[in-house]
Amino acid sequence: MTVAFPAFLDTCVLYPAYLCDTLLRLAEASAYRPLWSADVLAELWRNVIERGIPPKRVDRRPAHMTRSFPDALVTGCESLIDGMTNHPKDRHVLTAAVRANAEVNVTFIEPAEYRAVLGDEHVKAQAPASCSASEALYRSVNWSKKSSPRSETEAAK
Predict the structure, then answer these.
(1) In this structure, what CATH number is given to the domain that contains residue 138?
(2) Average pLDDT for 7-32
(3) Using one digit for the tens of pLDDT, what is the confidence trace for 137-154?
(4) What is the dihedral of CA 125, 128, 129, 135, to 10 degrees?
(5) Does 117 map to a domain?
(6) Tens-place pLDDT, residues 82-100
(7) How far is CA 151 from CA 17, 32, 95, 133, 146, in A?
(8) What does residue 109 show for φ and ψ, rounded to 5 degrees?
(9) Phi-psi region of 76 (alpha: psi -120 to 50; beta: other; left: phi over 0)
């Protein structure tokens, strides 16, 4: 049995509903193993509430995510936060990705910021459109660009 590669999902890629849905469908297809932290889910919840969505409705997404992927929650990374030198608002994301031994952090944050903190041998930052998980899905379900509902470029917008 092959274990899918671990990928940490940043709040910014879970926020747009279409992108969150796409990423989670990729995970359901075993294209990768999704990871997130309680801080990421809390940030997601706050950001969606700020858009004016009722809290009861907002609660459904993180609840469904944790039910569908019970091993995705990364814990025990708080002690690493102070050792990170990236932007303070993003430290919780990078520490959780490091703690989980994620191969990639799916984010819109510039990869150069991660390389400056960790070098090239640790977690790689990748935008969703260039993420290996999306490539794996296209291969696994034999979609062609012509038959897919939207191209990767359109989906990333």
Answers:
(1) 3.40.50
(2) 91
(3) 444 443 333 333 444 444
(4) 90
(5) yes
(6) 877 777 777 788 888 888 8
(7) 17, 20, 32, 15, 8
(8) -70, 145
(9) left
| Domain membership of residue 30 as a residue range | 6-156
Tokens 């031994």 found at: 101
Q: Is the pTM of this model over 0.85?
A: no
- CB-CB contact of 20 with 48 (8 Å): no
- Taking Cα atoms as reference points, which of 27, 6, 19, 29 lies closest to residue 105? 6
CB 102 within 8 A of CB 77: no
Does the residue 115 lie in any domain?
yes
Tokens at residue 8, please? 């940490």
Measure CA of the first residue to CA of the last residue in the chain; give whole Å.
35
Q: How far apart are CA 97 and CA 123, in angstroms?
A: 7
Asked, for residue 1, whether it belongs to a domain, the answer is: no
Number of domains, the chain: 1
Q: Is residue 70 part of a domain?
A: yes
